[in-house]
Amino acid sequence: MDRLLIVDDEEINRSILIAGFADLYETVEAYNGRETLDILENSKVNAVLLDLHMPDIDGLQVLKAMKASGQIARIPVFIVTASNEDEELLDAYNLGATDVIIKPYNLQFVRQRVSNIIELYNQRHHLEDMVAEKTQELVRQNNRLVEALANIVEFRSNESGLHVKRVREITVLLMKALVDEYDEFKGLKDDIESIAFAACLHDIGKIGIPDAVLNKPGRYTPDEFETMKTHTLKGYDEIREMKDLMDPRLYEYSLDIARHHHERYDGKGYPDHLVGEDISIWSQVVALADVYDALTSERCYKKAYDNETACNMIMNGECGQFNPKVIEMFRRNIESLNSLRLSITE
Amino acid sequence: MALLDELSANGSNTTEGLSRLMNNASLYERLLKKLPGSVKPLEVLPHIENGDIKQAIANAHTIKGVTGNLSITPLYTAYTKITDLLRIGSIDEARNLTVETLPVQEKILTIIEKYS
Questions:
Q1: What is the largest CA-CA distance in chain A?
Q2: According to a count of CB atoms within 10 Å of the terminal CB, is the N or C end of chain A lower?
């Protein structure tokens, strides 16, 4: 049953509205602004009938608080007032009030106006829920597609798909650490999942590398290395072809990561030789995750290094220079990263 | 004489009051009987005389709202005017009207209390 919050410092006014709505909604009453905000914070409310003039926190202050918390977008608020001051009522509308009911009123009309709006809001919420559910389903499908594509690349490289999973999870851990530690990255908090799935596609360009090079069990010749390096540009082009299939955020991150996960902080990476902060933080994180997992895994051309050796190689700059902030988060999380890596097995 | 008839004879529009409450007579009477308890603590004149016009407006405004919803017309009309006069700074006029209204208010509340 929908819940109606009736706010008035005068008992008779509350009693009238409670009597008027008792057969339609569950009613809950508050006699001042503070109590109103407590109820709104701690329980579900479908609409508020709000007096403007109350001691302590008045109706306009309640509206301001509801606006600040975002509640005003979800909960219709009806101002019920004997005030005839246009300026005050305009303030209420500007703060997000849905409608103004002037005392004295006819209870039947108030019932109709309030229930019409509650029904409209309920329909809107229902539609929003449906859209959110469908969007989530699309994102899930998108992510499954990304994983499947990434696995194809891994299998071609005679790997099991675990590298992609480990790079993804290492990326999540390092991105969360960066977001928690540095204000400049806090805005990425809601994008970590997209970045993680984009990380899965970092080597998608290897699809275009000949088997003889991709699976060569030894050191590359300079020419072979040049061929191998093109997987960044091939990956970039392949993802561009998938633009219409991908969520826009996932697409942008995938494009950047595929192209720039071999760039290095000192400009000695490839393909664009970007330097320092010109390399996006997510590409720098995936770069480190990729190197860390490659070092600690056995490959057709090398044995696996133990965790301590691999970490030292990364921190000493033996695998190229990484962003100092990423390195610092790596250093602080070495134990967690090792446990995470070991937990992702066949 | 019943409560509604007596209030009607003293200027209240009880037909309108009933209509406002979806012709629920028992609700109307129940709310009317709460009126003295609500209105009596809301003094206006002492605040005007003390110069606390903000509180005088707040109390007059509350009485206006309650009496309006219950269609106690003499009090609703008077307190609407008192609120407006206070807001525009006509303090003496507001004070005079409040003094004139108090006996009317007393009479109406006494009628209601008789039936409580």
A1: 90
A2: C
